[in-house]
Amino acid sequence: MSIEQYLSPISLGNLGFFPDEYSTALGTRIKAYTQESGLPEIPSQSLILLGACEDRGAEKNAGCAAAPDEIRRYLYPLASPLEEMAIYDFGNIIIGQAVEDTYYALSEVMAAFLERDNTVVLLGGSQDLTFAAYKAYERLQRIINISAIDSRFDLDPYEEITSRTYLKHIIMQNPNYLFFHTNIGYQTYFVGSEYIKLMEELKFDAYRLGELQHNMVRAEALVRNADLLTVDIGAIRQSDAPGNGDPSPHGFYGEEFCQMMRFAGMSDKISSLGIFEVNPEYDSHGQTAHMTAHGIWYFIEGFFNRKHDSPLLDPQSCKRFLVNLEDQGLEITFFKSKLSDRWWIQVPCDDTELREIYSRHLLLPCTYDDYQQAMNNEVPVLWWRYFQRLNG
Hints:
Blueprint: E1 7-8, E2 30-32, E3 47-52, H1 67-75, E4 87-93, H2 99-114, E5 119-124, H3 129-139, E6 144-149, H4 166-171, E7 178-186, H5 188-191, H6 193-201, E8 205-208, H7 209-213, H8 216-224, E9 228-232, H9 254-266, E10 272-276, H10 287-303, E11 318-325, E12 330-337, E13 343-346, H11 352-357, E14 363-366, H12 368-375, H13 381-391
Parallel strand pairs: 2-4, 3-4, 3-5, 5-10, 6-7, 6-9, 7-8, 9-10
Antiparallel strand pairs: 1-4, 11-12, 12-13, 13-14
């Protein structure tokens, strides 16, 4: 399949980036699709930037379609985290006559990248593009976990796919390739008790903003569990990210956002990151685009410092711990990386067929607190939610 028909090149001049003037800049390590250079050739397991200037699905945030190049404007001049590295920027998805056409083009292009084990950083646009990213995995018949850094659940009960309904539409797909969903940083006054109950009924996971701000180690494990991480920039407080049509005075700080982006970059599991809802029309002196560029910089730094120490990739890189919970009649297996001190917990599955289908997701990222909880003869909550989902 030729993806060039779906892509529009970028102009380094329009970004105000001139490589001769920025010898140590990140942009000099980016092989970009321009009118002059054509599409770059890429090896497998590469890091790819891709823009999608689409906002017809945005709720209360029209104008976010202009974000991809605005983010690039601040990303390219940043100092390169490593001297020897290569990133590939494939420009922007050509917007379709209907929003469904854009979804189709984006899913086709992303599937082509993912099939070769590349990692995609998707610059939105509105967050309904997460639906198109999911469809890329569906094309490859890959069962995935999605984590969302978002102040809302995006489960609103409307027929049209929008930035506030996309998750509902992903759940409704049949056959379905979403195994688990985690919300990172919801704010209760935006959600309501009925949707919190719905998330529990779906056996999905959700963590309040305040809970994670006091425990960013937990946020690391939640981010590390995703194949696809989607970010609504409205989850960042307005003082740090004013460039959004529907901002909140509360949310993650910019530093916490960057911390989570580095966590994401270092995850061996994540194969796509989408950052959405940045709106230059509401931004102040490019503050939000600049902060987003910093977050992507941290993702890049993490990506090129991956330890590849998951027990699935290298069992010898981890120590194995068996914890016997006598009161519950359970034995739970933990793994701790010798390289990074990160933890995983193994979730058993009684069904042989399901165990084979979900094999990638049976080793669940966790924290030392989960291990301590098990040592105190208590079932870790994270483990229990997964166990219920697998064993019904």
